[in-house]
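Cytosine deaminase
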Amino acid sequence: MANAIFQSATDAPTFGSSPRGRSLSITAFPPRSKSFSVKNPAFHQTGLNEALAEARKSLDEGGMPIGTILVHHVQGIVGRGHSQRIQSDCVIHHAEMICLQNVGRKPASFYRDCTLYTTLSPCSMCSGAIIFYGIPSVVIGDNKTIRGAEDYLKQNGIEVENMNSDECESLMKNFIDTHPDIWQEDNPQLIVTVSQNRRKSTKTHL
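Tokens:
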């Protein structure tokens, strides 16, 4: 069922190309209704898998393995993005920002019928963009590596669901273990936060 909803969007535009005038390879997403909720792990795992595919693309390019897709509840996958901070040498090129850039110009009403899928808990910058454009729901793959501005999202009425994906967490852990200096570039506090989270997790399992 989920695979029929999320068709591969291989024609979706990527950073550096014009998103306008190109059709995306998508199928319909169930229309949003009062009963719509992001709290459906089985359904949304397919969406997260698409974001994971973007994360792997970034890793293959030498970047941080973070990926995002934007799904319109009628049109399907309308945007894709992965971290380009290293590749483009630009500190604001986070996966969520690239994804929104690749969606192109849309009316405000368009974003109100979307769900954003991201492999890593979004930072305050990306959360601000989500709030600014009125995206009502966010599905997160991993918030153990770093817990972003999820409270900020919730305080602004955004529905947030964490999938606790082992695959998302493993991708980031392997990258951080191999490239701690690159990970720390984004925010000097990130390494401290990750270490604290890991210590808490270890104590929990003792």
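Residues 41-181 form a domain with the Cytidine Deaminase; domain 2 fold (CATH 3.40.140.10).
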